[in-house]
Amino acid sequence: MKTTLNKFDEFSRRQFMERVAKTALGVTLLPVGAQVARAAAEGGSAKRVIYLFMEGGMSHIDTFDPKTGATKGASDPVKANAGSGNIDFLGGYMPKLAKQANKLSIIRSMSSKTGVHESGRYIMRTAYEPRGTIVHPSMGAWASHFKGRIEGVTLPDSVTIGNGAHPGAGFFPPALSPIPITNAASGLQNTKSAIGDEMFTKRVALMDEFDTAFRKKFQSDDVKAYTEFYDETMKLLKSKDLGAFDISQEPANVREKYGNSGFGQGCLLARRLVENGVRFVEVQAGGWDMHNNIDTAMTNNGEMLDTAFSALVEDLEAKGMLKDTLVVLGSEFGRTPEINENAGRDHYPLCYSTVFAGGGTKGGFIYGSSDKDGKRVADKQTAPEDFVATIAYAMGLPIGEVVMSPSGRPFTVGHKGVPVKDLFV
Amino acid sequence: MKRNRIMLTGLSALVMASASAFGADLRTWTDVQGRQVEASFVKMIGDDIQLQTADGQFHQFPLARLSTEDQGIAKKMMASAAPAVEVSPETPAVGTGITGFPYPKEGYGAAARQVDTLVAKGIVTKGNKQRAEDGLPPLKGFNPAANDEQFVRRVYLDVIGRIPSYEETMVFLKNADPMKRTTLINTLLDSEGYASHMFNYFAEMLRVKHNLEQANLQGDDYVNWLRRQMDGNRPWDQMVKAMMVAEGKMWTEDSNKADGWDDKGAAGYLLRDAGMPLDNLANTLTVFLGTDVACAQCHDHPFAEWTQMQFYEVASFFGATKTRTRDRNQGLMGEVEAMVTESGQDITRLRNGLRNYVQANSYAVEDVDMNDMKLPHDYQYPDAKPGDPVKPKLIMWSDKDKGNPAYKVSKGDSEKLRQSFASWMTHPENPRFAMTIANRLWKRAFGVGVAEPVTNIDDPEASANPELLKYLAEVMKKVKFDMKEFQRIILNTRAYQSEATTEAIAMGSMYFFQGPQLRRMSAEQTWDSYMALVLGKPEAYKAPLSDLYGKSIDLNLNNEKLTAKDVLIKYSAYRQMADKQRALMGGGLDAAGGDSMMMMGGEDKGGMAKEEPAAAAGGAGKYLSYGGWRLLRASELSQPERGGHFLAEFGQSPRSLIDGGSKVGSVPQVLMMMNGGAQEMLTNRQSLIFRTMDKVTNPADKVETLFLSVMNRKPTLQEKDIAKREIGTHGEEGYSSMIWALINTREFIFIQ
């Protein structure tokens, strides 16, 4: 049997890359997070991004790439509002979004190589396949790396809302990690100290005193990361905008509009956060792994998505923020066009859809297409790398720029993917 | 090494400071001039001796400065205490172990000796070769031996999943028996905490949940089954086989009682992934055989030689196994809905609940006559066509496997397919089965497997220490898959009882086990350690038994005589039980806790914790609660806990992926450590830490008690000074501040 990829080739490669990096031009071998003057990257109409991540694998046919033939599924496609460009129909579970289709841009020609949840999620967040030797950064961390923390903003750069595993800052410093909020309704907990500011500060100093010997003895990255999280937390506690994490400050009718689901309330929290200067928010929605009874499952999850996504787009537009806020929807893969013996659909990476709204995208626009049954990409195949590069392009990140990891390996945002510039005005 | 020649003069003050010292390893040393100091022996370095005083300081000076008598004692100690071991580059003889280390006389001692021999050999051969390539200095052998304070904290965390209480710490430290470590290991392995900690490990690995994704299906009986396996220390091969061959619903009574075990609930393994047999199989191979073939589900494995055909051939062993029955489902629901409407009730309000109830009963493992495993419709290789039927065939890892007795298992007819697969997989001679669990349990003790990742061993020869890996697999077979016996061996090695490695270890680089790696506590270890600080021995508190679900939900869909009326009557009974269970399991309590979980004050403030007797119906459960938290060990709580709970914030696995827990830090975690309910609970004047401190009066003794309670070690001299200052400025409040500060240190949350 062949040995798998050499898992322990790090060091020889590192030495090689360090030599290369020292001599080659166009390579930044900088301490991560450092700023350099660089030529203005293209794109950049999106100052903020809300990434809606459908965990489990969202059926493309039942949502954004409806079919009428043998693979149609239980519900009939619903007609998009007049004036929605080349979007004619959405899946039958998406009636509210069908009314907003003039704001949506859909890629119907996504295709990936992995039908495994874990790696599918990872590549849709990082543009890289998971490896045992490194963790790649997610998009919020890439943005913080290139653009730095936003001036005058006291909240963190990025936030995730949901319970799923996330690559976070990857090989960038822990300070660039998104803050995970597991439950939108409870927001960020424990921000109030019962002992008063003065005592609190004293206790933190006492902690550092007691911990000196240990931190000196164990110089591991994990220990240092924790210390950085303590520093980050202290900074955050001084923020005047902590209230942004509290959705109970929203009027009841607004909360209802987003739907009474964790995901819906998460979208509302995301809106509050971007309003207060957070740059990148990911909102996760589970329950898409519909191997059984997909009609029942879609009735529930479809309603949840339709309500929250449409409310979010509408709300952002009403506040005048949609033009520079990109809302993007992705999933690890699609689901089989054929309905299986359990009345469900299984994993299907060969052909699936992603959706964009705002942030300089056209709206009422379909890019690429699948064949008549949604089985194969018919036109303009788009890989996860291209999808991630498109988000980077929207934010104006320098897509070709090589960044070295601390272990000396070269990486680029979007992993050499080609952004789909057609989506943008 | 920097030589720090410290004179003993002036150290007599230290004797005073440590007058209440009690560590068995502390003794009074006398120098040639008759001056004395109380210190523990660390090691000999050439002609020097190194001692550690009670404040934690190390002192190194020429041995000749000590009295003749003490020189002799030091030499003896050097021989028996096994300080930093230097290993000669020559291959040590089999079973030599490490000279002077107190291996137990029993058989497991001999095995521990051999493990050490192999680890030592690996360090100086493959290890140092690799380190030279990585530009790291060579290792001479193991890290220095962990001292008693480090050892007691680590072994409690590793074996029973929590830090020791003050009392437990003191009993160990005061014990003068040279075999006290072995004795403690044995005690811990036989304690309730061991089963609890093992449950957490396997629940995470097997993705055990109370609320499964499908319909309204609850995994209660699967959870309970796993608990029983851990409580009774069932051999791993039997346990795995039971999961592979289980039949019926998750709550179907077990009539076979294979090996004398009640396997009600074991069907949960296959039902956990009902409707996804291929994913389930990929998980099976990954978890039990350390062979990751998930890619081969969709195409040939890109790196290893697994083909898509091979994957489907193995899957074919499950081709005649169904996880859903669909018999009368649909028709019956129509009748039920009509009956509800007829009775004047609103079916729209009841429909979902009724459907879920009936559907939950359609999840059952059944074998049928027809093996319908077929190649996928997009099969793209020339050896067969899409949709072709696939015959079952076992995988081999090398040509040597052809003569392996594991492959001689009978093929059997279609109804016995799963059984023959299970017999092959769990066979002691299966090329990967024993090795995979041995490698996993090794990782549990050292923080890293001999072969990484543990989910894909691939080529054992490419692992950090192939000889060790093979020996561990042999040991696993020899102890007949008794995981407790296996761990007894590992825990008694000098390798394990070394100090944790202090150097930074690059991600993905090979590690050679000079000692355990520094590890962050898991979410469960952190929570359970808090419980130890609050309750002393948290194992004394148990959640009420939760078998109500399985008892009330059962409905026989295959019964031709089942009427819509029967369904409604049973459903109504189920609803009543479900309400009762919610109250019992704290579902209602948790929901009510929600946002108020962190609220300070209220009725909890005065009393330390209020006792909440469980409702009468469930069992003997009795537990305390505080601010909406049920003060029970993680294994007794919901599997997994909901988002926002302490456990979820600290990275408890959501149980959707194998080994899905996380040890990565985050801002909400830090906030919880700083301002959360746990802090309130521990710094409260009524807390167990304070009550233990109240047993002594002198502030210095109080500080020592505080340190021993929270960190399981005595304070250093500097720390004593800091403490004095704190109490001087803040009085009583100073103690609360110190508890707060210590729990927030990295030293607290990382396992040395």
Summarize the structure in words.
The complex is a heterodimer of chains A (425) and B (752). With 425 residues, chain A is of the alpha/beta class. Helices cover 31% and strands 15% of the residues of chain A. Chain A has two domains: 323 residues, Alkaline Phosphatase, subunit A (3-Layer(aba) Sandwich), CATH 3.40.720; 57 residues. In chain A, the strands form five sheets. Chain A has an eight-stranded mixed sheet with strand order 7-6-8-2-9-12-5-13, sandwiched between helices. In chain A, strands 1-16-17 form a three-stranded mixed sheet, with helices on one face. In chain A, strand 16 and strand 17 form a beta hairpin. Chain B has 752 residues and is of the alpha+beta class. Chain B has 30 helices and eleven strands. In chain B, helix 27 packs across helix 28. The chains are: A alpha/beta (425), B alpha+beta (752). At the A-B interface, helix 1, strand 7, helix 5 and helix 6 of A face helix 24, helix 28, helix 29 and helix 30 of B.
Short characterization:
With 425 residues, chain A is of the alpha/beta class. In chain A, 31% of the residues lie in helices and 15% in strands.
CATH C-level name of the domain at 12-81 in chain B: Mainly Beta
Would you give the CATH topology of the domain at 12-81 in chain B?
SH3 type barrels
In order across it, which strands form the biggest sheet of chain B?
1-2-3-4
CATH architecture of the largest domain in chain A: 3-Layer(aba) Sandwich
CATH 4th-level superfamily of the largest domain in chain A: Alkaline Phosphatase, subunit A
- Gap from first CA to last CA of chain B: 23 Å
- Overall geometric form of chain B: globular
The named CATH superfamily of the domain at 12-81 in chain B: SLA1 homology domain 1
Strand content of chain B: 5-15%
Number of strands of chain A: 17
Q: Tell me how many strands of chain B there are.
A: 11
